[in-house]
Design a protein that fits this description.
The chain is mainly α. Helix content is 80%, strand content 0%. The protein is built from 4 helices and no strands. It is elongated, with a radius of gyration of 18 Å.
Length: 142
C-alpha cells in the first residue's frame, strides 16, 4: 500500500472510530433520558468508556508507553506497528460496544457470546501486530 493510501485509510479509520464513540455516547444520553436514569448511573456508564477511549488514544499518540514507560523512543516499523495496533484496538473496542447499543434501539437481542467475539477480535489484532514487531526485530538483529 502506498503512503498516500495508508494515510487515507488511517484517517478513515479514525473518523469511523470517532463517529462510533459519538453515537455511543449519544445513545447513552438517550437511554438516560428515556429511562429516567440518575446522573450517577449515566456517569457509571460513560466514564469508564471515556477513560478507555482516552487511554487508547494516548497510547496511540505515545506508543513508547507500551514499552513499559521506558524513555527509549520506538523507531521505524516498530513505531508504525505499535500505532496501528492501538488504532485498530480502539476501533474494534468502540464498534464492539456500539453494536449492542444500536441493537437495543432496534429491539434486537445480542447473543451473550458477542462480547467474547469482540475480545477475540481485539486479541487477534494485538497478537498480529506483536508478531509483526517480533519478526521485524528478529530481522534487525541478524
Amino acid at each position: 500500500m502506498k503512503k498516500r493510501q495508508s494515510e487515507t485509510w488511517e484517517i478513515a479509520e479514525e473518523t469511523v472510530t470517532a463517529i462510533g464513540a459519538a453515537v455511543f455516547f449519544g445513545l447513552q444520553f438517550y437511554y438516560g433520558y428515556v429511562y429516567k436514569s440518575s446522573a450517577q448511573t449515566l456517569l457509571y456508564h460513560l466514564f469508564p468508556i471515556a477513560l478507555l477511549y482516552a487511554g487508547l488514544t494516548t497510547l496511540q499518540i505515545y506508543p513508547e508507553l507500551l514499552n513499559g514507560g521506558n524513555s527509549e523512543r520506538l523507531h521505524g516499523k516498530v513505531r508504525i506497528y505499535a500505532v496501528r495496533m492501538m488504532r485498530n484496538t480502539k476501533m474494534f473496542f468502540m464498534l464492539g460496544i456500539l453494536a449492542p447499543s444500536v441493537a437495543d434501539v432496534a429491539g434486537v437481542t445480542v447473543n451473550a457470546g458477542y462480547s467474547l467475539f469482540v475480545m477475540a477480535g481485539i486479541l487477534i489484532g494485538i497478537g498480529y501486530y506483536l508478531y509483526r514487531i517480533y519478526r521485524y526485530n528478529s530481522k534487525e538483529k541478524k
